[in-house]
């Protein structure tokens, strides 16, 4: 008897008597008397574990392979919408996080859904250099326009959150696809329309998260649009700023920056009239620069950067150090302050030089020109020191990983501050040459085409206005 390859007791009896019952082809008498059916010993070859891998492989090769599943085709619109949400709602920028809250209440209204589709395709085309998405983006945009117009004619939708958001998204579409603010009326048409809508809304909506968030977004978008297009600040925007004041933290650095930028925009508007004397220009410019400087000194401790010195020379930093910020958004806000100070001091420097040209004597103004240049160079170097943390240094703290989708956007939003620094800094600082190298690196290693375009502007020294560059880069479409 065999059990699990081992002989039974009866077979053990056979072994003690040295009987070869397995060769007799019958059971021995002892086994029969014990009432057991002895089958004898098994063939050792049957008990041996053998490697059947090769024979199994050969049998498998005899069958025709078939794919288990077919490839999943995700529609372009769904892919684009997912990219848009991952950037503007959940990811790098939460600028339009209210979209999820509005959609979660009762689903998206048709005009809002159409606007989301249009701007999603436009963003996808830019972010992933997907030319195939640009045509359907424009088609969706054209189909969204009549839907938004119909919503404006419906009393229940006219002043709704969904309608205001839809118009803001159409404005975002224009900023992504249209880079010529001076020559195109459409570049500001939607944000102007949104400002009109805001006047029709119940003031109580500022007490809600969605209402306040949309109004602050509208204020910021309209303000920056005016600055970039060199347009005057409309009275309605000034009124909106006053209405928002009680609902925001007065000590919020970002709000304080926005308020000072508004003063800067009004100052630029006054300059366009050409009615200010050199003395008045200098007085107002210095006063505003002092306010930006005061804001920079009063930043919360959690905003303060830490300087890190490099042990070895590196082409990825201008001077042998870089600054580490708590996060990208803090660094961005600090760079806005520096850009404003550079632009103001460049105006101060040019005004002094104009005075020199008129009088023919440099000596009285040489010290003032030198001081303005010193401030510009200092701000330019600080901008350059703020970039490596997010772009070039693999050992830098709080740096996005190479695989992070936000890293490319981090680099992209550095284009404007880098350009302003290179545009205005003194030649002896080497800022222009260093920035051009960084732009070339971004274009080559990260595929940022606009980095190469801006690098060429600096190399040509064609004097392109920083605000024109800002519009070319997509304005606030890609900044937080």
Automatic annotation (TrEMBL):
Q: Which domain of life is it from?
A: Eukaryota
- List residues traversing the bilayer: none
Report the InterPro entries cross-referenced here: DHMBA_Reg_Transcription_Factor, Zn2-C6_fun-type_DNA-bd_sf, Zn2Cys6_DnaBD
Q: Has the keyword DNA-binding been applied to this entry?
A: yes
State the Gene Ontology terms under molecular function: DNA binding; DNA-binding transcription factor activity, RNA polymerase II-specific; zinc ion binding
UniProt domain Zn(2)-C6 fungal-type: residue ranges: 10-39
The name of this protein is: Zn(2)-C6 fungal-type domain-containing protein
Source species of the chain:
Cladophialophora yegresii CBS 114405
């Amino acid at each position: 008897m065999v059990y699990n390859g081992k002989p039974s007791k009866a077979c053990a009896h056979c072994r003690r008597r040295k009987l070869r019952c397995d060769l007799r082809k019958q059971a021995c008498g002892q086994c029969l008397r014990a009432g057991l059916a002895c089958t004898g010993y098994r063939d050792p070859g049957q008990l041996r574990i053998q490697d059947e891998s090769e024979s199994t492989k050969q049998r498998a090769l005899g069958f025709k392979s078939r794919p288990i599943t077919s490839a999943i085709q995700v529609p372009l619109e769904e892919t684009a919408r997912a990219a848009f949400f991952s950037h503007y709602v959940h990811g790098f920028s939460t600028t339009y996080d209210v979209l999820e809250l509005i959609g979660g209440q009762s689903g998206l209204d048709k005009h809002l859904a159409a606007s989301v589709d249009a701007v999603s395709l436009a963003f996808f085309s830019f972010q992933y250099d997907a030319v195939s998405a640009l045509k359907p983006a424009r088609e969706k945009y054209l189909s969204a326009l009549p839907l938004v117009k119909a919503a404006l004619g419906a009393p229940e939708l006219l002043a709704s959150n969904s309608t205001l958001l839809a118009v803001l998204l159409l404005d975002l579409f224009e900023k992504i696809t249209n880079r010529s603010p001076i020559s195109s009326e459409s570049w500001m048409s939607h944000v102007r329309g949104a400002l009109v809508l805001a006047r029709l809304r119940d003031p109580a909506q500022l007490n809600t998260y969605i209402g306040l968030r949309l109004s602050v977004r509208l204020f910021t978008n309209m303000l920056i649009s005016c600055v970039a297009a060199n347009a005057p600040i409309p009275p309605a925007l000034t009124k909106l700023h006053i209405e928002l004041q009680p609902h925001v933290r007065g000590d919020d650095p970002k709000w304080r920056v926005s308020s000072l930028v508004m003063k800067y925009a009004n100052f630029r508007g006054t300059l366009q009239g050409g009615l200010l004397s050199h003395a008045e220009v200098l007085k107002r410019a210095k006063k505003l620069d002092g306010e930006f400087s005061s804001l920079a000194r009063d930043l919360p401790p959690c905003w303060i950067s830490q300087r890190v010195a490099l042990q070895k020379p590196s082409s990825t930093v201008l001077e042998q150090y870089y600054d580490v910020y708590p996060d990208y958004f803090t660094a961005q806000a600090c760079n806005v302050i520096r850009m404003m100070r550079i632009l103001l001091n460049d105006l101060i420097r040019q005004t002094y030089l104009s005075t020199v040209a008129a009088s023919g004597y440099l000596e009285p103004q040489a010290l003032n020109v030198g001081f303005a240049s010193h401030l510009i160079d200092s701000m330019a170097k600080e901008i350059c020191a703020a970039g490596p943390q997010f772009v070039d240094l693999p050992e830098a703290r709080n740096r996005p990983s190479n695989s992070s989708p936000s890293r490319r956007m981090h680099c992209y939003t550095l284009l404007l501050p880098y350009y302003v620094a290179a545009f205005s800094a003194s030649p002896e600082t080497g800022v222009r040459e260093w920035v051009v190298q960084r732009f070339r690196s971004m274009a080559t290693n990260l595929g940022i085409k606009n980095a190469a375009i801006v690098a060429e502007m600096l190399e040509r020294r064609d004097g392109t206005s920083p605000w024109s560059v800002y519009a070319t880069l997509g304005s606030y479409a890609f900044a937080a």
